[in-house]
Design goal:
With 414 residues, the chain is an alpha+beta fold. The strands form 5 sheets. It has a 6-stranded antiparallel β-sheet with strand order 3-4-5-1-7-12. A two-stranded antiparallel sheet has the order 2-6. A two-stranded antiparallel ribbon has the order 8-9. Strand 13 and strand 14 form a beta hairpin. Helix 2 packs across helix 4. The radius of gyration is 21 Å and the shape is globular. 42% of the residues are buried.
Length: 414
Amino acid sequence: MQKRIFGLENEFGIIFTADGRETLPGGRAVRYLFERLITREGFLNVFLENGARLYQDTGCHPEYATPECTSPLDLVKYDKAGERILEILLHSAERRARNEGFTGSMAIFKNNTDFVGNSYGCHENYLVERDVAFHHLAERLIPFFVTRQVYSGSGKVFRGVHGAEFCISQRAQHICQKISGATTNNRSIINTRDEPHADKEKYRRLHVIVGDSNMSEVSTYLKVGTTAVVLEMIEDNYLYKDLTLRNPVQAIKDVSRDVTCREKVALEDGRKLTAVEVQKEYLELALKYYAERGGGDEVTADVLRKWEYVLGKLEEDPLELDREVDWVIKRKLLEAYRGKHGLRWDDHRILMMDLQYHDHRRGDRRGDDHPAPGHPGQAPGGVRPAGQPAPDPLRPGLELLPRRELPQRPGDLR
């Protein structure tokens, strides 16, 4: 895999549930979250010692931006470290709230929607060679991004005029254009923001806003790793297959609604393929591309192997990916609970379970350090809790977590 710079930005939802009449305003909750990190009143923007940035974003919610990384595996590590840092800060914020007379519990959610229809993002960033024409880059990436959700979607119960339904992606229903520069409205499959933080004559920054926030390390790894593979083929002018979709904005919504992964979308050339079949077209080219170049490095080989495995399972039976892919894990949990209690998709208990999937707090509400039964943050990616006290996010160096809690090699993500 060609060396390039990667980065992830995750916007988080934050809620304070009061035990009494006194409720904690959202702005103050965010400020309490930052108090352990800042010394200046009202300055909610800080670079952490691991190179990441934590700040209050537009809309009064916290956002964590990973440091610049040079491999998908490193990006998974720093993304997961961000979750643990926010969990530590959450406990500090709750203590501060109690000291100020606000009794209750605070929760941080790594998701992309709230109950009233607002959407907030997970933005991916890739350094791309400038000599690739932007229109060519966009046209080659759009079919990939439309269908990538089958292994990178986080799942969501959406309520509409015809009732509630489970969808593969949280962001897909908020996409309304092919290409635009907006990130908070009129969101698009391809975003035109171009701030490379490098030599702008040589590089552009591809800013991707179409993806979901992931709890599963495997989903994050594949989301970024497969995109890097496709970008390398585009830069090398190797992606010669025309997979242009007839209506990509409608297709991204249709793919999201199809939990069987068997419905077909129309291509501009008249063909109809499933989302998995479109992805397999990209994978087939990638396997050929790297075979002609000696197979690639260890991370590349691992990404290709996992990509092929996941697509095969999606074609056979998506529910077999209940340890790897977020939307499958979530749907299986919700279906089991629905079946046991005879609930409809729009039951408030199902909606709360949907939200709870993204809760940063690994222990239960009593504050213990053991994962709640079925908590998705522990199962999908093969990263296990270390059973050690949470480290201080302010300690020097990059090792924010015990080493055995993090994947050290590509094969550790399984």
